[in-house]
User: Fold these one by one.
Assistant:
Number 1:
Amino acid sequence: PECKLQLVRDHIRPYQDFPKKGILFRDICPILKDPAALTAVIDLFEEEVRRNYQTVELIVGLDARGFLFGPLLAQRLGVGFILVRKKGKLPGTTLSVEYNLEYGKAEVEIQEDAVAPGQKVLLIDDLLATGGTLFAACELMKKQQAEVLGCMVVIELKELNGKDKLKPQSIFSLVQY
Ligand code: PRP
């Protein structure tokens, strides 16, 4: 696992001042470009699921980069994948939850029949920053009475304390900064 983790770490590229001045952006594109690094991410997630979340029934991916890793993991586990999207992208009856951004508000949405009451779900995204996005996604799951087993991300930015915001939800991350 240590060398898989190193491979993942080596394929995260920092960009200074993106998307605005003062922000150090951690880009996961090099992971996707390298089959071994992408396999390492999915292997490490799979190992964590087999350790701690064997009862998972559904993987829930967050818009947009959760969609890159989520389906691969779901397929590996032999479970389904559903999408939490930014508002206005999904057809049919939807449920939404509003959350705060640094400036203004955003809203995430699922299709009403995406998850059934009592289903055991795991949320997945590329990165945990303030935790606002994952928190809103967890709220959506609660609205549908799904059981959130935990959240998994490739990268955790520790200084933003996203874990505290998500408590008591368990958060698993591969790489921390
Ligand atoms: C980024 C990232 C997470 C979220 C984390 O997405 O991919 O989804 O921010 O931030 P938080 O923990 O403070 O909520 P972004 O908002 O850039 O949207 P995108 O994936 O559509 O580019």
Number 2:
Amino acid sequence: EKKKKEPTPLKPPQHISLSPSHPMYNEINEITTSHLRRLLSANKAEEQEWQCIVDQGDLKVFKRELEENGIVIDPMKAVCTVKKITGHEVCHYFWDFENRLEWEATLESTRIVEWLSDDTFINNNVIKRVWPASQRDACFWSHIRHIPAENDEGSDNWIVVNYSTDHPSCPSGKYVRITMNVAMICQTIIEPPSNGGDITRDNITCKITYTADVNPGGWAPSSVLRSVYKREYPKFVRRFTQYVLDKTADKPILF
Ligand code: 6CM
């Protein structure tokens, strides 16, 4: 008899500074864990559901075509391999909202709504208007977490999740409110120098998996939205990873 595949076990997080008594702790924990589980247990059949729309070798972008009441909600996925940076560095700069305008071309402005803990805050993004649709904004929690390797052979992972929420200090109304479930998951691969010397940036590779489920809220023309996605997601990954390379080149490696 064929055994049913058990979900990948995941130890309870060792590093989460949001207090378990916080009202949002369970949601943040569950969403973050589900992203990790989904990535670690992805199988061939699920992989085939993704349609590759950009293949630049080291960077591939996929989508699954999906519509809800005539609105495009295509889940997007990008997989990218970058040398010389660690997953910790990639996640650090993705989570660090202060520099976001430097690499996020679709963003008009961003502000912190509330800090929940030193690894989680609530954020309000105003997105640039795309003609002929109305301007959009988003309110979401942003959480960063380290999932250390369980043993010497295991992989060391970092994750950032951006997930839509409501907040009294961030009412909707001025713009069309988009909702999102976004995750950036990074795995660092280190190939130590064969001469036993120190590990340098040349020995480091980061494997990035970025997923974005975005609901544009109200009406938006499907063809415009799909062409914006096809253009903007690869642009974002290129621009953002180059930003991390530039920021870290002269800095000690953040493992
Ligand atoms: O993940 C990214 N950025 C994060 C930090 O800000 C955050 C934001 C995600 C928002 C993604 C939504 C982009 C949609 C843009 C078009 C919407 C206009 C609708 C009208 C169309 C006719 O998770 C990087 C996001 C990179 C986006 C390309």
Number 3:
Amino acid sequence: MTIQSRNPATNQAFETYEETSPDALEEALACAEEGTEALRLMGVRERARGLERLADLLEERAEEYGRLASLEMGKTLREAKAEVRKCALACRYYAQEGPGFLADEPVKIDEGSAYVAHLPLGPILAVMPWNFPFWQVFRFAAPALMAANPGLLKHASNVPGCALAIEKVILDAGFPRGSFKTLLIGSKRVEGVIRDPRAKGVTLTGSGPAGAAVAKAAGEEIKPSLLELGGSDPFIVMPSADIGAAVDAAITGRTQNNGQSCIAAKRFIVHDEVYDRFRDAFAEKLGALRLGDPLAEDTDIGPLASASALDEVLEQIEKSVGAGAKLTLGGTRGEVEGCPEGNWFVPGMLEDIPEEAPAFRDEIFAPVALLFRVPSLDAAIELANDSAFGLGSAIFTKDRAEVDHAVRRLEAGATAVNRIVASDPRLPFGGIKTSGYGRELAKDGMMAFVNKKTVTVS
Ligand code: NDP
């Protein structure tokens, strides 16, 4: 069996890879088991130095890896290079902070002494999506390597080149054989890896159905799991907000990564007093974005990652319009000169969306803005929380009391005030409700797969 890399700008396959055979998978699992010991023997300081070397290599290869990501999944080269550099940042963060996070923590008890030691669990399976093909993996891999947990990567099937590049750069940085292995396997083979006694946990970033399947197998095997799933983040705009700044943030939030981000602002919930002003300015900027070759400097929006992603968003729009929503801008198949076969989609805007429309409840993983008009902050929060998702949220206002109220009431793993939601290695990242459980990044991300051993001494 083979796996192909296909350029979403042309829909032409440009590279073919052999799937990992059953024998090679068996060898990878055996090797990963040995990898735990090899990482442990390196010691905390040497692992931190390894992460620094890894950061250097990622910075050196940002152009090469950025180009690969653009070619495999269509994001603009500018964003792809920034993504690779952000991976370097995460490596440096854990190199600096990891030794402190992993240090023994003394605890005062009545008799004798006690401390908490932080020990590796062993090989962790990472099931990852294509939308940030480097960052999604590194935000797992950097803390895992620091904590001496080997990584087994099952990446999305459309980014095999990125998956192999990640394994290569980690080994090039001097991490031992067995510390990180890419498995080119389809999703049907994931359960077998979770159930293998040598895999000690699983982390998944992706859709709800994939998360549920992985968590079910992990639960039956009594293994820890972490899920980062989808979102339909609300973006609330109140009358006191700087509307120009809110519009700029809304454009970036909705269209970055060609609109394919779990923490993209998706539902724009705007106070009646400023709705028209916000809508007009937003529509003008959205309509001016340049669709084109992701490798070109002047492209704002590249193709969607796959033909099926394009079909899906077109269907969501058609059904939403059928249910009564108004498509007031774009939202159609796009055209780019010289690339008639690409997955081009014109950024769109839906208004007056009724509850029955798919756009009201479902995640739209493409640059489509959903606009809602509300009479008050309470109405905005009620609408924001009327969603199965709970990943990120944002509010634009200059009123302190409104901020405090929203921060306490919005059902989400993050609230950004007068800015868009973005991940940062120093801050915990994750969702509630059907957006998943557990936290990546910061100290929490490292502790997700660590044995916090209680030690008492008389
Ligand atoms: P999928 O869930 O289809 O794929 C994600 C990964 O899971 C892929 O590696 C895929 O493999 C694998 N997978 C799919 N089905 C199964 C299964 N039944 N058992 C085991 N593994 C499976 O999501 P997409 O690739 O379409 O990514 C987009 C989704 O991810 C969106 O919903 C988005 O919101 C979410 N996401 C969440 C983020 C977060 O941090 N919360 C960040 C980014 C995206 P294969 O490719 O071989 O099918």
